Give the backbone structure.
Amino acid sequence: IMKNKSVLFGVFIFSIFSFYIKKTRERWIKHRNAIVSLESLLNEHLDELSGNEHLLNGSIETYSKSGYSYNYYRELQLKPNIDLDIGHLDLLNKYFYYKTTINRINHDLLMQNKAQELLHQAALSNNLTQDNLKINREHLMQNASQIKKYITKAAIPEATDLLAYVRILLSKEKERPMQ
């Protein structure tokens, strides 16, 4: 009977140890997949940010010539719940800061798209005087300049820095898997 108890105890300890290893590995895989997903997302954001910057340049030039811009700025998508799977606190803090920047840019771009659309409708329906149209175009040009400045001075450098940090983490994890 004593021998069976020690065997049962050994099986019990082994099963707890196996369960712990399995859960640790699952968590590491979630973390790794989240980092790879974040790397992909940041590459997309850099592409979309530069595309929006190019469109903003065109809009600014068009407004400066008393024209109307028909550019539509793309919002940057954030992957839902990616932050729940990141298991690195420093990376998570950097991502939250970056996420705040992207949310602000998305809001600004959405407002710029809406304002442009309303100005087009007002101009087509002759609801505004030429002076009011000029004032609104100047306002849109100033907004576009501010958004462009924020993209070039904040969003692109933050995305680049975060992407570099992610790539360093990925290379370190290749050297030392499942910490």
Summary: The chain has a mean pLDDT of 90.
